[in-house]
Amino acid sequence: AGVKEDTFNVLDLAEYTKNRPWWRKIFAPNSGSSAEKYNVATQLLIGGVTGWCTGFIFQKVGKLAATAVGGGFFLLQIANHTGYIKVDWKLVERDVNKAKQQLKFHSSGNKMSPEVKSKVDEVIIFLKKNVILTGGFAGGFLLGMAS
Q1: What is the mean predicted confidence (pLDDT) over 51-63?
Q2: Whose CA is closest to 47, among 147, 111, 131, 103?
Q3: Which phi and psi angles does 8 have, rounded to 5°?
Q4: By 3-state DSSP, what share of the chain in percent is helix, strand and coil, each rounded to 5?
Q5: CA nearest neighbour of 131 among 139, 27, 55, 29
Q6: Which of 29-38, 55-64, 96-105, 110-119 is most confident?
Q7: Whole-angstrom distance, CA of residue 50 vs CA of residue 44
Q8: Residue pair 34/130 in contact by the 8 Å Cβ criterion
Q9: Could you tell me where the DSSP H helices lie in 10-88?
Q10: For residue 9, what pLDDT is reported?
Q11: How far is residue 78's CA from residue 76's CA, in Å, rounded to a whole number?
Q12: Is residue 2 included in any domain, yes or no?
C-alpha cells in the first residue's frame, strides 16, 4: 500500500574518466589550458620560475650523485690496488656481455604499451596547449642548470 519505487541512473565511471584528462579530474571540470586563464607574461613567468627551480635542484642533485659515484669508484679502486678486495674480471666481462645481449633483445622490439602510449599522447597534447608555459619552463630549466 503506497510503496514508491525509486529509480536510479547508472553512471559508468570507467567511461566517464576515459573522456576526461587527469588535470580536470584533479582541479575542476572547468579548468582548461593555462593559455585560457593567464596572459603570456604570466605564463612565461610561471614557467620560468618553476623551470629555474627544477634546473637548480637537478644541478645540485647531479653534483651530489656524481661525487658519490666517483668517490665510491675511487675507494673501490684503492681497495683493489692495495689487495683488500679481489675482482674477478672474467665474471665481470661475462655479466657485461650478458647485459649487452639483453639490451639488444629489448631494444629490438621497440613497441610501447598502450598505457604508456596514451600517457605520452596526453603529455604531448598538454605541451601543445601550453606552449608558452613550456617554453618558459625550458628556458628557466637551462638557466637553473647554469647557475
Answers
A1: 93
A2: 131
A3: -125, 145
A4: 75, 0, 25
A5: 139
A6: 55-64
A7: 10
A8: yes
A9: 13-18, 22-26, 34-37, 40-82
A10: 72
A11: 5
A12: no
Report the chain's mean pLDDT, rounded to a whole number.
80
Supply the range of the domain harboring residue 79. Answer: 38-146
Output the pLDDT for position 18: 63
Whether 45 and 52 have beta carbons less than 8 Å apart is answered as no
**Total structural domains within the chain:** 1
Residue 44, pLDDT above cutoff 60:
yes
Answer yes or no: is 13 within a domain: no
pTM, 2 dp = 0.52
Residue 135 lies in a domain: yes
Residue 85: name the closest of 70, 73, 93 by CA: 73
List, in order, residues 6 or more apart from 146 with CB less than 8 Å away: 55
Q: Is 138 contained in some domain? A: yes
- CB contact set of 137 (below 8 Å; sequence gap of 6+): 47, 48, 50, 51, 54
Phi, psi at 126, each rounded to 5°: -60, -45
- In this prediction, residue 118 carries a pLDDT of 86
State the Cα–Cα distance between residues 135 and 47, nearest whole angstrom. Answer: 7
The pLDDT value recorded for residue 101 is: 86
* Residue 144 main-chain phi, psi, to 5 deg: -65, -35
